[in-house]
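Run Gas vesicle protein through structure prediction, thanks.
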Amino acid sequence: MPLYVYSIIAAAHPCRLDGLTGVGTEPAPVRAVTAGRLRAVVSDVDEEIRPRRRDLAVHQEVQDRLMTDGTVLPLQFGYTAPDDQAVTQVLLEHEDGYLEALERLRGCAEYQVKASQDEDALLREILHESDRARQLNDRIRGGDPDPRLPLELGELVAAEVGERREGLAAGLVQSLVPLARDHSVRAPADGDILNISLLVHDDDKNAFLEAEARLTEQVEDVEFRFNGPLPPYSFV
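Sure, done. The structure for Gas vesicle protein is below.
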């Protein structure tokens, strides 16, 4: 019977799954398939699993339960296998790699940091600090009909915005990365200037949270969105 696979853990993990039911319209109990020194946490399914709200929540609930008791290699939502035998074969074939990953992630969780910048404040800053931008803006506002002025101003401002956002994002990354065991920077979306995931060990958790708080207080005109601790999806 097809299986939905949530995560991989060590065979020694307590794996407390009592009361958990899995994804799908007819949820089956969440259980473990053990092979050698590893376990895969799974549930039986008889349908194609789509990212519906309940199923996404169930997927995360399983990871959270397992993380309470030990290290987890969380799989992204939607991973399935044909049957128990296929899962067992994968665990045995890749045992050393999975055990190495579990050791690398031991005691760690993922924290996500996203940031966006107040665009109006940035434009005001550029007009204040760039003589050329200020001159062009003053001429346009004064009624100069030269059609080249708006184009030049737009190109100048766009270049300044890109350069300043990249510089700010680089500075933010440099302030956070020293407190993490690993990090993954992704392309920002939806107007953000920063999208970074960090792998933080429990021993460094308090220092990392204090650094987050300092950023919020010290960096003006930037809105931060912090998320974590999370299963270390980005580092599996």
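The radius of gyration is 24 Å.
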